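## retry 2 of 3
previous attempt timed out at serialization; input unchanged, resubmitting
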Amino acid sequence: MEYLILIRNNAETAAAITGPAREEFERAHQEVQAELTASGELVETRILDDDEARVVRTGEVPLVTAGPYAELAEWVGGYYRVDCADLDRATAIAARFVEARWSPIEVRRID
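## retry succeeded, writing output
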């Protein structure tokens, strides 16, 4: 089954991963990517670009603003698409990312 692991960011996460936790952050992602590649579970992973993002709302007149934040405290910074046995395995993968200390990581099955 395929799952999408959405890694959210917030101001606290952004500040933390540029400081002392940066090495741990990078190491965790490298280890997970290597493991998932070796097991065949990694479908793809991407970092989402903040510079060229927009938020679109429709109504009487479409409203487009610079994004990606949609006036929220959290935003999706990247994702992993994995093909693994079940939700428990996808959740175990998500729990290995340091970002979960400061902001939520969402795991969703892809239909």
